[in-house]
Amino acid sequence: MKRVLGNAVILEGEELEPVRGYVVVEDGRIAEVGTGNPGRSYVDLKRGVVCPSFTNAHTHVGDASARDVGAYRSISERVGRGGVKFKVLRSEERVRRGIRSALEEMLASGTLAFADFREGGVRGVELLRSTAGGSPVEAVVLGRPDGDDPAEVLERCHGFGISSPADYAEEELLKLRRLAGRRGKLFAVHCAEVKDDTADVLGLNPDFVVHLTNAGEESIDEVLRRRIPVVLCPRANGSFAVGLPRVKELLEGTLVALGTDNAMANSLNMLREMEFAFKLARGLSRDYRLDAREILKAATLNARKMLKLESNAIVEGNPASFLIFRNNNYIYDPVLGIVHRFEVSDIKGIVKGDVLLGGNGIV
Fold this sequence. Notes:
Elements: E1 2-12, E2 17-26, E3 29-35, E4 43-52, E5 54-60, H1 75-79, H2 84-88, H3 92-108, E6 111-118, H4 121-132, E7 138-143, H5 150-155, E8 159-162, H6 170-183, E9 186-191, H7 198-202, E10 208-211, H8 217-226, E11 230-232, H9 234-239, H10 247-251, E12 256-258, E13 261-262, H11 270-285, H12 292-299, H13 301-306, E14 321-325, H14 334-340, E15 347-352, E16 355-358
Parallel strand pairs: 1-4, 5-6, 5-13, 6-7, 7-8, 8-9, 9-10, 10-11, 11-12
Antiparallel strand pairs: 1-2, 2-3, 4-14, 14-15, 15-16
Helix pairs in contact: 3-4, 11-12, 12-14
């Protein structure tokens, strides 16, 4: 199957450079990206903006059926061991329904891949995999043993997603890290979300860390020195009232991706995550030169690098996984438009492979 999409502004390549032209999709991949008129019959995108689809680099979608439960309690009272979420999420069917709603929310807002820290051992991993299996939104499942055989858990998912080093004995964590390394799978850890445990986390040599909200100067310096990839979740950190990450400093020093974190405390909308991160970074740093392109990369291309997924940069040969935003005559910068102006209603098409998945209707 071949589809030619023309009369568009295409955010092309790894640098998301705006190009006026067309994109050809054939057999699920990008066969051509060109400038000007394609010179053949094509679908007119009416000067819409074509952008790589979003990848949400950190979620807990298993909590999606407990949205805003315990909103005025501390983070430990809400999601810690014995927290209020465990009183609500006793029914496996309720958890499954919540996951389905989370997948629908992500798809509607342009996310076609996500990484989830999934608790509950083998059963928890299988619950997410079976629920997400029929969805066009690709799940990178990072499980945790929770009493099960770690090797059996790892066999069923993409790696380990560790809650906190404080929840494990040091030797147990080292065994988990070695196991993931031998199997060629991911090992990621929550880090400095509430307190600065960065030294303990980095001692495990993780593939990436999540949060760094309360990391001190020395900890940030060490992360940057070692160029450890980082997932930032600023809206969730604010919602949980645990502080805010140093977005600009991290963007400038290592590979950074964005995640929406726990669906209990935050929406899964990456458009909202980008806007918050962009304005937080500029406001706290007072640096008006911070480029929105770096935020858009964190919500798209960077996340896929971190999760070892094939790039969906809009270049010849890559898989077709992109969004089509409507044209707005009054927006001078299409990247800024996506990062801090466009809404879900501005998504006119969602393309994955040869399939048009949704959007509000121009292709």
